[in-house]
């Protein structure tokens, strides 16, 4: 793999934050959607390499029903071999008390519940309606907070839903606010199918603020289906958001939303942050090398523009 020395020119914009926390979701959001099950040893190496590249918050896996997401059925095995060095945070998804029990048994101290802004996706992703999802999450959040764990809340389909169409920002904000009232400490706004555009991001942030959830508690989680993820991220940064979810190499999607494609690629985000002079702590060269290596493991090139520009991924179909 050859990485050329490419870095953008830095021009600082005083309107933007000085530092952004990157919340890496590749090992979870990325690998949950792969048609093949990636071996535990490869997942562990992926997580180690991401940490070596400077990422500090790396969502590791999900304690969901193994039949619903077989790609992550090895969650406990992965955590058993994971290098949990100091300063690293490895949140995991838990939908219900059974998932929380499994996460606690695996030694996790940071979990994430994941709600839907729409009835249809709640049913498809969680086998519950809108009200049923809150009933499922309430004891999870209460027990986790009582045990001193951090709890992140995701809301999916915030900007649009493939079955219900456009989603009212007030509806998405109401779902998020309810999770925050339960005791979650961060709200990640999920554009699961990548339909958001920048002013729409502002409208959703306004709706969240009107429900008492300010930008300091919000993270943004953009999938890049229509190529808007970076523009939407910049819009969120301009509004004061400082936590951005991204996926190394642009891996990602949701097995229960066919139109979801990969997340905002962490490399594309890092390139933009470097150009804007925003601190993030990630070594782009090491990250690109990691995503090029992972692309080789998965047998297909990374969709990230920056990975494509800076690396020559391993040939996905080597000659026999
Ligand atoms: P269910 O079938 O309704 O579960 O699934 P249940 O509560 O009726 O339980 C049925 C059986 O499953 C029981 O076993 C439970 O113990 C077992 P039995 O008594 O019959 O032997 N069970 C479990 N086993 C292991 N781990 C568990 C678990 N829970 C129940 N956690 C459930 C409900 C929520 C579990 C299921 O719908 C599920 O696992 N859904 C997860 C779907 C998922 O992971 N989707 C992708 C993540 S969301 C996403 O990607 C979006 C995001 O990135 C943001 C964005 O982009 O918008 C976060
Ligand atoms: Mg996602």
Automatic annotation (TrEMBL):
<protein>
    <submittedName>
        <fullName>Hydroxymethylglutaryl-CoA lyase</fullName>
    </submittedName>
</protein>
<feature type="domain" description="Pyruvate carboxyltransferase">
    <location>
        <begin position="20"/>
        <end position="288"/>
    </location>
</feature>
<keyword id="KW-0479">Metal-binding</keyword>
<feature type="region of interest" description="Disordered">
    <location>
        <begin position="298"/>
        <end position="320"/>
    </location>
</feature>
<comment type="similarity">
    <text>Belongs to the HMG-CoA lyase family.</text>
</comment>
<dbReference type="GO" id="GO:0016829">
    <property type="term" value="F:lyase activity"/>
</dbReference>
<dbReference type="InterPro" id="IPR043594">
    <property type="entry name" value="HMGL"/>
</dbReference>
<keyword id="KW-0456">Lyase</keyword>
<dbReference type="InterPro" id="IPR000891">
    <property type="entry name" value="PYR_CT"/>
</dbReference>
<dbReference type="Pfam" id="PF00682">
    <property type="entry name" value="HMGL-like"/>
</dbReference>
<dbReference type="InterPro" id="IPR013785">
    <property type="entry name" value="Aldolase_TIM"/>
</dbReference>
